[in-house]
């Protein structure tokens, strides 16, 4: 788990990254539990957990998640979702989730989760969404009492290997005035393209409802194409394998010359945001084609080429991380300064599923915060 939070300062100017205003677009509810909460909720339902103290349990999650495989990585969620099957469990997890975001300097967060995975103890789909919204609002109120300002919305996710896409899309639209800001599909990517849920995406498009899709994590360009064409995705969840559509023509001491394939060109020219999650991308093997260390991540290449890159945590529990830590790791790997970190936050603000006026206000909040750093 993340330790010594005071260490996350930029080289050079020493800016405290945790204090900077940040935007989180890709953060899974069932991947952000506090280990102690999981232990306590597990005790209530008689669930056996791999460790009985929070530190050891957090270490177990990060170890299990360092598999190099998305499929193996996803197995850790069997444990977290098991304690999120009641209104009380869902509300508590959501409330603490928002509290932790606010403590990390996040001023706007989109929280994604799959209601269809939380029905084993009798809740309806609508009741699960209501429970999570209740927790989110409590967390926002808690933050306000602590002098922190945060706004958060739900991203309702359908599991791409299941056949409930349209039902979950209808659920999301039903709650669009009650906390839900967008739709997503997640789960095992290879073999389950967005086209399997084309009916759901047609429905969402007819309702002018925004979509982000996990693509370019465990599968390549064809998966990204399906997300764009079948899903009308406005953002790509991870999207790092878009780099497979780049060709490095030549390099010299000062420059790298790159040509873009048609998919990469489309994504860049239309400023479709990439929701990268550096630590998670290492754990799941999403960047295996380029290496196994953070410095091998194509993030910097995509950034230098003008793609709308954003920085995210994906699953804070599984990666033992925070948004502050992810930014610090990137700054350390690629020598980024305060202006770069601000650019990533402004990219995320511009891609947020908010009305234009709210996005502009969010951008101003970020600029003001960075000016004060």
UniProtKB/TrEMBL annotation:
Highest taxon of source: Bacteria
Keyword RNA-binding: no
GO CC annotation: cytosol
Domain Adenosine deaminase, first and last residues per copy: 21-367
GO terms (BP aspect): adenosine catabolic process; hypoxanthine salvage; inosine biosynthetic process; nucleotide metabolic process
Transferase as UniProt keyword: no
Essential cofactor(s): Zn(2+)
Keywords: Hydrolase, Metal-binding, Nucleotide metabolism, Zinc
Classification via InterPro entries: A_deaminase_dom, Ado/ade_deaminase, Metal_Hydrolase
Molecular function GO labels: adenosine deaminase activity; metal ion binding
Pfam family, one: A_deaminase
Name of the top EC class for this enzyme: hydrolase
Entry EC number(s): 3.5.4.4
PANTHER family: ADENOSINE DEAMINASE
Similarity comment text for this entry: Belongs to the metallo-dependent hydrolases superfamily. Adenosine and AMP deaminases family.
Name this protein carries in UniProt: adenosine deaminase
The organism of origin for this protein: Agromyces agglutinans
Top-level taxonomy: Bacteria, Bacillati, Actinomycetota, Actinomycetes, Micrococcales
């Amino acid at each position: 788990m993340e330790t010594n939070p005071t260490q996350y300062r930029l080289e050079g100017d020493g800016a405290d990254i945790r204090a900077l205003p940040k935007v989180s677009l890709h953060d899974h509810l069932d991947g952000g539990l506090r280990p102690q909460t999981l232990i306590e909720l597990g005790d209530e339902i008689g669930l056996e957990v791999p460790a009985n103290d929070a530190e050891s349990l957090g270490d177990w999650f990060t170890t299990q998640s360092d598999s190099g495989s998305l499929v193996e990585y996803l197995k850790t969620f069997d444990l977290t979702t098991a304690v999120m099957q009641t209104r009380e469990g869902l509300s508590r997890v959501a409330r603490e989730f928002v509290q932790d975001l606010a403590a990390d300097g996040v001023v706007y967060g989109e929280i994604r989760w799959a209601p269809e995975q939380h029905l084993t103890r009798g809740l309806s789909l609508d009741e699960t969404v209501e429970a999570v919204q209740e927790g989110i609002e409590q967390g926002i109120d808690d933050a306000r009492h602590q002098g922190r300002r945060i706004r958060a919305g739900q991203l309702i996710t359908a599991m791409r290997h299941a056949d409930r896409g349209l039902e979950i899309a209808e659920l999301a639209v039903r709650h669009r005035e009650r906390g839900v800001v967008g739709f997503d599909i997640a789960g095992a990517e290879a073999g389950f393209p967005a086209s399997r849920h084309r009916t759901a995406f047609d429905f969402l498009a007819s309702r002018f409802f925004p979509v982000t899709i996990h693509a370019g994590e465990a599968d390549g360009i064809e998966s990204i194409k399906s997300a764009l064409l079948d899903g009308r995705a406005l953002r790509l969840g991870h999207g790092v394998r878009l780099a497979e559509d780049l060709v490095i023509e030549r390099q010299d001491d000062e420059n790298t010359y790159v040509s873009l394939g048609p998919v990469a060109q489309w994504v860049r020219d239309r400023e479709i945001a990439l929701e990268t999650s550096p630590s998670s991308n290492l754990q799941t093997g999403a960047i295996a084609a380029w290496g196994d260390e953070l410095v091998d991540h194509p993030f910097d290449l995509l950034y230098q080429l003008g793609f709308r890159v954003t920085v995210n945590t994906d699953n804070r529990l599984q990666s033992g991380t925070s948004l502050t830590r992810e930014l610090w790791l990137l700054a350390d790997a690629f020598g980024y300064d305060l202006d770069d970190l601000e650019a990533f936050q402004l990219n995320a603000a511009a891609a947020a599923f908010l009305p234009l006026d709210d996005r502009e206000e969010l951008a101003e909040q970020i600029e003001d915060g960075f000016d004060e750093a």
